[in-house]
Write a structure and sequence with these properties.
- There is one protein chain.
- With 107 residues, this protein is of the alpha+beta class.
- The chain has one domain: Alpha-Beta Plaits (2-Layer Sandwich).
- It is 18% helix and 11% strand.
- It has 3 helices and 4 strands; from the N terminus they run βαβββαα.
- A two-stranded antiparallel ribbon has the order 1-4.
- A hairpin with a 4-residue loop joins strand 2 and strand 3.
- It starts with a strand and ends in a 12-residue tail after the last helix.
- The relative contact order is 0.32.
Length: 107
């Protein structure tokens, strides 16, 4: 099983989760993070660290967020690994409560 980063992360991209990951399975895109399912060891350390509740265990993924498992898998192959916490985007707070953000995902 793996953990999955979902829509809430788009345009927020808080990296608190990255600091606690023991296997460096996070990958960073322009405005979103993903988890490489091949690297994730299902330790669950990242989930409580996310301030916008964007990380779910694969078997607890809400139905409307299921497509993010495939998206995480795809983008983890393209984006570089991130291993250290970085400052959040300057407008991250403005995006925390916004829904339907997939259209804003930058590849």
């Amino acid at each position: 099983m793996t953990y999955v980063v979902t829509e809430s992360c788009i345009k927020c991209k808080y990296t608190d989760c990255v600091e606690v990951c023991p296997v460096d399975c996070f990958h960073e895109g322009p405005n979103f993070l993903v988890i490489d399912p091949e690297e994730c060891i299902d330790c669950s350390l990242c989930e409580p660290e996310c301030p916008v509740n964007a990380i779910y265990a694969e078997d607890e993924l809400p139905a409307e967020q299921q497509h993010f498992l495939e998206l995480n898998t795809e983008l983890a192959k393209e984006w570089p690994v991130i291993t250290e916490m970085k400052p959040a985007p300057g407008d991250a707070k403005e995006w925390e409560e916004v829904s339907d953000k997939l259209q804003y995902l930058e590849r």
